Amino acid sequence: MKLTGRFAPSPTGVLHLGNLRTALASWLSARSAGGRWLIRMEDVDGPRCHRDLGEAQLRDLSRLGLESDEPVLWQSDRSDLYHEALATLHRAGWLYPCVCTRKDLQLLASAPHSEDGLRPYPGRCRDRAWEGFNRALRTRLPEGPVSWEDLVLGPQADDPEALTGDPLLFRRDGCFAYHLAVVVDDGAQGVSEVVRGADLRPVTATQIRIQESLGLQRPTYAHLGMVAAPDGGRLGKRAGASGLEALAARGIAVPELLGWLGWSLGCIDRPESCRPEDLLVHFDWTRVPAGEVRAPEGWA
């Protein structure tokens, strides 16, 4: 079976260096294995996502030479599939309605929690009688820890109950939650390798449990170290990170950008202008650093 990788950004802003590094790593891994590479727009959170931003992200990926092997999938077009998944979980007895308000959750969040700062949902509504699909919905998870081999971080193990508790899958505003959509779409598209930032590593065990509940195959995971600003600060959309157009305005051409990205992934010994194809022969997960990478001065 051919490896199938994917890059799945949310269309809420421009793609910054961290996003572009993830996209390139995923593309290189799939291409070097002779596999498929897909792009999926995770616009399931309607109020925050915008189609025009997604189209701009696709143009940026195309400028880098990263093209999807299949038509781009938009989650906002796939509500029927997510409803089917919810129905499957309901029939299996995993799903339950949650009536906790934002204030309730804030109070729960103020209670003592684990040292890593995550506050798991404690199952407050688990015993509520079924009230239909017009409520916010959570799912119970199969009990016990989850282990997996991460291509970047090595052996990993987490207990979803301790990290996230019962995840929210359907919100009271009618939006499907990320945990549901990402699992369903990876399964439907036959994704066998998920490359993403290390900030999403803590939810991996929860998503694996949802996969199991839906009878889906588990992909291989690779969690890349984050790209930080030159001063070590946060690099992200909310922090105003620069996108491809802003970098171009500063005189940073695409080949130069690709060279730095390739160097940061261990493909080449020093940053030098190149094309994505130039990096393929040198890509190896054992050479990808696990730690944080700082953007060059003036790039963020």
Describe, in plain words, how this protein is organized in 3D.
It is a single chain. The protein is of the alpha/beta class and 300 residues long. It has 2 domains: 4-75 and 225-294, Rossmann fold; 78-182, Rossmann fold (3-Layer(aba) Sandwich), CATH 3.40.50. The chain is 33% helix and 16% strand. It has helices at residues 17-32, 51-63, 79-91, 102-109, 160-163, 178-188, 204-214, 244-249, 254-264, 276-280, and strands at 4-7, 36-41, 73-74, 95-98, 136-139, 146-150, 154-158, 168-170, 193-197, 220-224, 227-228, 293-294. Strands 3-2-1-9-10 form a 5-stranded parallel beta sheet, covered by helices on one side. Strands 4-5-8 form a 3-stranded antiparallel beta sheet. The protein has a two-stranded antiparallel sheet with strand order 6-7. β9, α7 (204-214) and β10 (220-224) form a beta-alpha-beta unit. The longest helix is centred in the N-terminal third of the chain and has 16 residues, at 17-32. The two termini are 39 Å apart. The model is unreliable at 109-118 (pLDDT under 50).
